[in-house]
Structure formats: structure tokens, C-alpha cells
Amino acid sequence: MSKYLIRPHHMLCMQFFEGKGYSDGFVASMAAIKEKLEKEDPQVEIVEGTDDVCKNCPHNMSGACENEDSVRQHDKRVYDKVIETVGNSAKWSSITKAIRENIIDSGKMRETCGKCQWSDICFKN
Ligand code: SF4
What we know:
This protein is mainly α. The chain has one domain (4-124). It has helices spanning 8-16, 24-40, 68-86, 92-104, 109-113, 119-124; strands at 4-6, 43-46, 60-61, 64-65, 89-91. Strand 3 (60-61) and strand 4 (64-65) form a beta hairpin. Helix 1 crosses helix 3 (68-86) and helix 3 crosses helix 4 (92-104). The longest helix has 19 residues, at 68-86. It is globular and about 35 Å long. Iron/sulfur cluster binds at residues 50, 53-54, 57, 59-60, 65, 67, 71.
């Protein structure tokens, strides 16, 4: 079982992913990662900058997100709400529990997601 590198805001995006994204390759990769996270419950290291989800993204410019300034703000808003519970590395099931309890179930989605272009999908679900 491999270890996954995930940046903070993707821990929240994964909860609502329903097969939409920046390109077919990106969607296939994200779907495969989500399936493995949920089936295998691997250890996940929470990282700064591009992660395993970013690997197949058309906005990934040689290892740097072309929207890095904006996505870092998404990362910080998620990170600040879960870091005390999960630290910088945890099983995916523990991360999911923290994301649900500290953000989704406690009504903090709007303040956390800000103006994310995908947020309509998440709020619908
Ligand atoms: S837009 Fe940026 S943060 Fe989002 S998946 Fe692509 S490279 Fe990663």
C-alpha cells in the first residue's frame, strides 16, 4: 500500500468529487486516487504545493500550480481547521472524519471554499 501526498484543500475536494475536472486525464487520475483512498485507507502526508492529485492537471506547470497564490489560500483555510486533529500525516479515514466534523458538518463550507469554481457541485451534494 503506497503513501499519498495530498495538499490540504484536496482533502475537502475529494469528499465531493463526482467525475468533473480540468481534463479527461485529470478526472481519471482523481477518480483512481479517490477509489484507492476509500478502499485501502492509506497513510496520507499533508503537503504544501503540488501533490498526487496535481500530477495530471493541465494547470500543473512543471511541478508548480499556475494558480498557486489562489489555491494556497484554499489550502490554508482547510489546513487551519484540521491540523490540530490529524497533524501532518494520518490515515485517510481519520482525515475524512476531521474534514467532515470540522468543516462540513459544522457549517464551515462557505467560509472555507470561498469563490472556488467547483463549489456549486459540492453545495448541491
Ligand atoms: S489547479 Fe493547481 S492545485 Fe488544482 S489540481 Fe491543478 S495544479 Fe493542483
